Amino acid sequence: MSGFLGVVSEVTLAMVPLVLFFLVFQALFLKYPRERLKKILFGMLIAGMGMILFLYAVYSGFVPISEEIGTFMVENLDPWMIIAFGFLIGFLVTFAEPAVRVLVYQVETHSTGFMRAELLLVTLSVGVGFFVALGMAKVVYGLDFKIIIISGYLVAVLLMLLCDRDFVSVAFDAGGVATGPISVALLMAMMTAMAAAIPGSDPLTDGFGIIALIAMAPIIFVTGLGAIMRFKQKESVQT
Questions:
Q1: For residue 238, is pLDDT > 80?
Q2: What is the pLDDT of residues 55-93, one digit of tens each?
């Protein structure tokens, strides 16, 4: 119960200033009717309870099992199997991320179907899977993180010049939603545990950086998709 009460304390400290801020605006400017005010406050209460349950589940379930999986992989699997597992888990985590699904369906709606939700979802999932696998390779083989991140953003800048600006906006928003609570809680704990289990590896320098790679993945893959679609459009116009 001490862990649960600690989470309740954390969420309460985070939520109370927001509620007070809203109540001040309600009293001075908004002046919502009483029924609407009750619904808003009830929604805030439900959101707070959801945060408490989620964070407690992360601290007591997600993080410990992720650390165990990371240690087990290093001790029992070949490097290529670890990298393949990284692609699979990265794909599944992104495919299941609620924020990603909200984004792709919003994009499809506002692009009047030009950017299809299913295509964007698969593109994002494959992109994150690829970069999680690359992150696993970084830990296993001791790859230089600075080279990976600088090269990645250079490729992203080049692809931004080759695609329509609509894809650029979507790509950067996708980078934010891909680093959702599921991916952070699961993959960061797994990577640091892997780094801790490898002799001579430092969890602080080798285990972290996975979230930066996940955030970069949608930028490269969505702008890459935009560049391919732009090229196909020009090709169809010429024919």
A1: no
A2: 898 888 888 999 999 999 999 999 999 999 999 999 998
Q: Are 120 and 199 in the same domain?
A: yes
| Contacting residues for 76 by C-beta, under 8 A, at least 6 apart | none
CB 123 within 8 A of CB 82: no
Cβ contact 216:223 at 8 Å: no
pTM of the prediction? 0.83
Q: SS3 of 55, please?
A: helix
What torsion, rounded to 10 degrees, do the Cα atoms 15, 99, 184, 179 define?
-110
Centre a 10 Å sphere on the Cβ of residue 107 and count the other Cβ atoms it contains: 21
Q: Tell me, yes or no, whether 71 lies in a domain.
A: no
For range 4-22, the mean pLDDT: 93
Which domain covers residue 49, as residue numbers? 1-60
Considering the domain boundaries, does residue 72 fall inside one? no
CA nearest to 139, candidates 88, 208, 87: 208
* 67-73, Cβ contacts within 8 angstroms, sequence gap of 24 or more: 67/189, 67/190, 67/192, 67/193, 68/193, 69/190, 69/193, 70/189, 70/190, 70/191, 70/192, 70/193, 70/194, 70/197, 71/193, 71/194, 71/196, 71/197, 73/194
Q: Is residue 128 predicted with pLDDT exceeding 90?
A: yes
